[in-house]
Design a protein that fits this description.
single chain, about 140 residues, Aminopeptidase, three-stranded antiparallel sheet, 4 helices, binds coenzyme A
């Protein structure tokens, strides 16, 4: 599988709530044991959402909040380490730039810090816990 075969789509919560929820349920709730009440929040309605497809099958999601926070990056386990996360992140950075967002940030699970560093994000501050998972804030200037 080449990342060239992956299509990235931009959407909103109203139009694709079911497919977005299905991927996030697999990755965060079932795989990482994130509680339901933390997974779904008030920002889903107002965020720009993204999903990736391989031959019409949805295999990844992410969202961009209006304040520049990238989150809910989730690639189905069997499709990881093939460049899909990188392709999705590049796409989101391009969309953020087109919205004149000059800096993006995210709460990186500490295991994902090397992935985001490879894409120019810089970790800031102390480790904190969300859903019992250690995180750090990471920033990237994009304009
Ligand atoms: C973190 C996550 C989004 C990364 O997505 P991904 O599709 O695996 O990302 P990529 O394949 O672009 O890169 C991941 C690694 O695979 C490696 N890789 C990329 N293509 C590869 C290939 N063809 N063969 C082998 N390794 C490859 C990269 O070098 C990269 O290494 P790094 O982690 O040291 O930076 C994904 O692991 C995920 O969804 N995890 C579960 C949910 C999660 O933790 N989300 C993040 C919350 S902060």
């Amino acid at each position: 599988m080449s990342p060239d075969n992956i299509k990235i789509h931009t959407t909103n919560w109203q139009d694709h709530k079911e497919v977005l929820s299905e991927i996030r349920r697999h990755v965060f709730i079932e795989e990482q044991n994130v509680p339901e009440e933390l997974e779904w929040d008030e920002y889903d309605e107002s965020s720009t959402h993204f999903f990736a497809t391989l031959e019409h099958q949805v295999i990844a999601t992410a969202r961009l909040k209006s304040d520049g926070q990238i989150g809910r990056m989730a690639i189905l386990a069997e499709y990881r380490k093939q460049g899909i996360g990188s392709k999705l992140l590049h796409f989101i950075l391009h969309i953020a730039a087109s919205k004149n967002i000059d800096q993006v940030y995210l709460h990186a699970q500490t295991t994902a810090i090397p992935f985001y560093e490879r894409h120019g994000f810089i970790a800031q501050g102390e480790i904190f816990y969300e859903a019992n998972i250690p995180h750090r804030v990471m920033l990237k200037k994009i304009c």
